[in-house]
Amino acid sequence: RAELTYLALTVKHSLKYFYTASSGIKNFPSYVSAGLVDDVQISYCDSNINKNIPKQDWIKKVSSEYPNYWKEETQTCQVKQRIFKANLEIAKQRFNQTEGVHFYQQMYGCEWDDETGEARGYDEFGYDGEDLITLNPKTQEWIAPKPQAVITKHKWDHDKDAAEHEKYYLTQICAEWLQKYVNYGRSSLMRTDLPSVSLLQRTPSSPVSCIATGFYPKRAEMFWRKNGEEIHDGVDKGEILPNNDGTFQMSAHIDLRSVPTEDWPKYECVFQLYGVNDITNRLEKTRILTNGRTNSKVQKTGSWGLATTIASAEWTLRRQATSDKRQATSDKRQATSDKRQTTNDQRRATQRP
């Protein structure tokens, strides 16, 4: 039964940038960067191609206003590549590590409320999957949960000019560029794609998975309920993941080993997408797909390839993970160091959306 959705979500847009330097991985770029608008990738660069390229047709419109845009973005990629590789080596020294796989990453960007005009920025660094230093946007001070980042915190906190520039960029410039990008891609970014929702079970004793794939935008919820009431016991919610075609998929798993088969129809999976009706799937054995009956509509993730996944999606998944298992599969986030920029001018001149 379809019910009107009451998903309370405001119209917010986001601009995110991910910069990653890595070491110890064969056949993988030592540097990767990616830009995303509303979780849709708009740009990509790595140390192999050594060039920043557009990933959406609509983002190419920026060239009509700014003819040198992609040339400048490529220059930014090349400069940051050198800085990030140097910073990774400094981070390894601070942690007394010389061998193995290591990552250094920055994640920064802003959110902009289309209705209120309010903007919020953020700038974060990590090393090998752990937060190292993060900007407090209210106080404009840096938070260093790791002792290896304290020296960097003191240095950046005392650089008042850089702090003011950072605040201005994250709350003003970033939001202005985000609005431009949203206008370029409005017809695509503001569309609604409905998903295919299926019930899957690998074996008779396995949890039943409710999987929705092919939906857009990303603002969605999924949960299980019994007799009309949402339940949490025995339910494990997966994260929202990107599909190859720019849409998303998500899942919610329920353990029914202690539930008599005759009680299964009391359960149903509910998928909510902002602005449309609920999609509900009642738990009935005839509707459950097994290994012998696969669902061809369930897509594989990885639209950006391994490089961009590490550069963006995996970091987000790690931050949102609710179990050790999901954390073990999430991306390693990266660290910071004194040489994040060789000069403030380099840092600010190259940090343009």
Automatic annotation (TrEMBL):
| Residue span of region Disordered | 318-353
The record's Gene Ontology cellular component field reads: external side of plasma membrane; extracellular space
Q: Which UniProt keywords apply?
A: Glycoprotein
Task: Output the PROSITE patterns linked to this UniProt entry.
Answer: IG_LIKE (PS50835)
GO annotations under biological process? immune response
SMART domains xref list: IGc1
Highest taxon of source: Eukaryota
Q: Which family does it belong to?
A: Belongs to the MHC class I family.
Q: What is this protein called?
A: H-2 class I histocompatibility antigen, K-K alpha chain-like
**Source species, please?**
Poecilia reticulata
